[in-house]
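look at this one:
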Amino acid sequence: MILMADNDYTGKDIVVLSGPQGVRKRPAMYIGSTASSGFIHLLYEVLDNAIDEAIAGYCRNITIRLSKEDNQDVAEVGDDGRGIPIDLIPKVGKPALEVIMTSLHSGAKFDNKIYQVSGGLHGVGLTVVNSLSEYTEVIVKKGGAKYRQRFSRGSPTTELETIDKVSEKDTGTNIKFKPDGEIFSVNSFDTIALQERIRDLSFLNPKIKITLIDGREGPEKTEVFISQNGASDFINYLRGQKQEVSKPILVSKVQNNVKIEAIFQYVNAYTEELLSFVNNIRTAEGGMHVIGFHTALTRAITNYLQKNTKQASKQETSIEGDDTREGLIGIISIMMQNPEFEGQTKEKLGNSAIKTLVDSVSYSIISTYFEENPSEASKIMAKVMTAAEARESARRARELARKKNMFEGAVLPGKLADCTENDPEKAEIFIVEGESAAGSSKQGRDRFYQAILPLKGKILNVEKASDEKIFNNAELHTMVTAFGTGIKETFNPDKLRYKKIILLTDADVDGSHIRTLLLTFFYRYMQPLIQRGNIYIAQPPLYKMTKGREVKYAYSDSEMNKIMEEYDHKAGLSRYKGLGEMNPEQLWETTMDPQHRVLKQVAIKDVERANAIFTVLMGLDVENRRRFLEEHASEVSFLDV
């Protein structure tokens, strides 16, 4: 049966939703999603308003307090700024506070009089937070009095009321809200993501004190974030344990009412780590300001090399943009009026004029720095030339690989036991350590949708390997060919042949090392697969307990102890040290069967911390790694020897 639409399409079919109703009907339009990222986006909207007061010069202290009510997180953000206006707006006959909290596109950020620059642009932030919260309570201190008004799901539940007297100098805004469980699929704020956001803001706004108080679990935990030196503190934090190649270079200038600030340096690494911000908002996808900076940097380096005949004469390979960014770490932050972001969640800056402005300012300052600091310039040029030579070597290696059909040929690797399912959404691949484990997993799998790719020994540590070595590594060739994505400039995550890539290694030290090597490769060369949620870690059982004919498996020491207590410690206990010790039926039942298995999805919550960990654990600096292991040795829960 075919359902036909009503052909009588008239004015009565038009539905007009007021501000809060529209937000609640289509929340993802305003906050990106109703999952974890959207949940915390509400808190960011309130925090950004407090930061805007700080940028304007009226706020020095911000406090964020997290608590829990009915198993649901509640957030409270307070500042010592000027306080939201509470006087009546004549045109609507309502207090300004109520209008701001209940009407879309209302606020003081449209004419650049009250806020020269701001993260909030559309006048929807507080309205969206209010609309998507079970309740919101706003307290304003202003003009010697304290005012309060409460709301629920976008509508006021009380009138604006005066609740106390305060000093004329005591001003500020405090907003407390409880995200609506009817809207969101999660009930808690991502602590790591919030800490990262606060840390960024403290670096970008020197001497602003941001206090995070977390009382959700047990006694309150307090963290204070404050930076005295701003950009230089930020680059030091970003560098972490990485070995310096050059000193930091600062780009700072106000031009055409745009404040441009960037700080960068080169470290002993093979990847770029450049964080970008517009009006204190992290632009994860970059934008015109990043393109302008990259263009300026490449031009400044290329011109310097051309003028420096001694170095230029040694360079047979032409310099490309990627060469100038290998091992580059830095931050670029601009403050401007009327930025044009792509989407409400502000992932990418679109103002085309900013590209030319950032390019011009950055090129002038960087070029001058090179001329005035020839020794530092020489270090950078050497780093860039080495990157260019390695790129050329890698290109030759890729050409050889293509000729051998190792990367992009239609022939899949012989060691791959592929599945028969051709739909990537339904297929998964297990990366298995060792031949014995591969044999059991091949026999135990569901051949229809589960593929098996065995690895021989430990793969290359890509953290301290050049592209040339990576492209010549047989195990990495095999993996990339099996995935179908290509690598480096040919990488395309949309060509992935399996929705799930599952790392299946032994529960011992060697297995952990192999898993870490694999994660390093995915993080450095296939990071979009992690961001898309394609990478998983299998959790094979650690223990097998038998009592009579009954068999149970435990995936942790605590689970084993619990089961043994149930058996009065009269069960047979065996510890699995390798997957090869399990027969195909056991491996399927415990580790591969979607109905019973335990998988951990790999995600990136704190980019700076992840970079630091990979650098320390897998990088070139042996001394830093030794110190790290000594400091954290007590945290190891078990160690097989």
Notes: Residues 374-403 form the longest helix (30 residues). The mean pLDDT is 84.
